[in-house]
Design goal:
9 helices; globular; 269 residues; Transcription factor domain-containing protein; 53% helix
């Protein structure tokens, strides 16, 4: 009678091993790994290539790096400014549909794309704000993330002002995603502060009405987000205090301006 080998302790617990009669074989079509150069030149490839959200975040980081390495831009017509804006615009234009939002198709947060969009809008503000026509003097007390940068006021909104206003609004829109703000990178605090400086500089303009509700709601969104982040990050608490104080000053001045105009121009009985 043939004897059987004794079972090991593991076999006694799990039972005899079952070997599949058709194990998976090594794949012969393993995709060739892509490099950073392939990512940069993806629009010239002869086939559509899928890149991860992290790859698009890398591109945004490279654009921010280009901005930081650029010598001081001398004026709005500086070719370096146009070159950097081309990089930012190309990043936006060539995003695949699934990456144009920080949320996936089923509503989940894509944190890498959130950070990418956040970084792109922040870079746009840093690039264009010095050449915009939004007077930053009313917001000089907001210096929790960076020293105040004086920008002189102009009579009309130039293209740089439009870039800055659009980027600040897009940052506030990121706050409206139904996800926990505490799941984001802590750098979101400084990006919210940049956005708030733009909103408040615009609200302080004399020709912007006191009751501009869209602008007021954007300011409130940013303050609310900073308030939530302040539960964890001390920098957010400091930024919230500065933004809220400036918003109060502008609100009070605007309200008094409206009351004065009503007194000087009473309505007919």
């Amino acid at each position: 009678m043939a004897s059987t080998a004794p079972l090991s302790p593991l076999q006694r617990c799990t039972g005899p091993a079952v070997v599949s009669p058709s194990p998976l074989q090594p794949c012969t079509k393993i995709p060739i790994p892509l490099h950073l150069e392939d990512l940069e030149d993806r629009d010239f490839a002869d086939e559509e290539r899928q890149f991860s959200s992290f790859a698009y975040r890398i591109l945004c980081g490279r654009n921010l790096g280009r901005f930081m390495r650029t010598p001081p831009i001398l004026g709005p017509d500086d070719e370096n400014l146009a070159r950097l804006e081309a990089h930012l615009t190309n990043w936006r234009l060539h995003l695949p549909p699934s990456k144009r939002d920080a949320l996936t198709s089923d509503g989940r947060l894509d944190e890498m794309m959130f950070q990418a969009h956040m970084m792109m809008h922040a870079t746009s503000i840093l690039l264009h704000q010095p050449h915009s026509q939004l007077d930053t003097a009313p917001t000089q007390a907001i210096n929790s993330c960076a020293p105040h940068q004086l920008v002189a006021r102009g009579d009309l909104f130039n293209s740089h002002t439009k870039h800055v206003v659009a980027a600040a609004g897009a940052i506030s829109t990121l706050v409206t995603h139904r996800v926990s703000l505490l799941s984001h990178t802590h750098f979101f605090t400084c990006v919210l502060t940049l956005s708030s400086i733009v909103h408040l500089s615009r609200w302080a303009l004399c020709f912007v009405p006191f009751g501009d509700d869209d602008l007021r709601q954007q300011v409130r969104l940013n303050i609310g987000a900073l308030n939530r982040l302040a539960a964890v990050w001390t920098a957010a608490d400091r930024a919230r205090g500065q933004v809220k104080a400036v918003a109060h000053d502008i609100y009070t001045a605007k309200k008094q301006q409206r009351l004065n105009s009503e007194v000087s121009c009473p309505l007919p009985c």
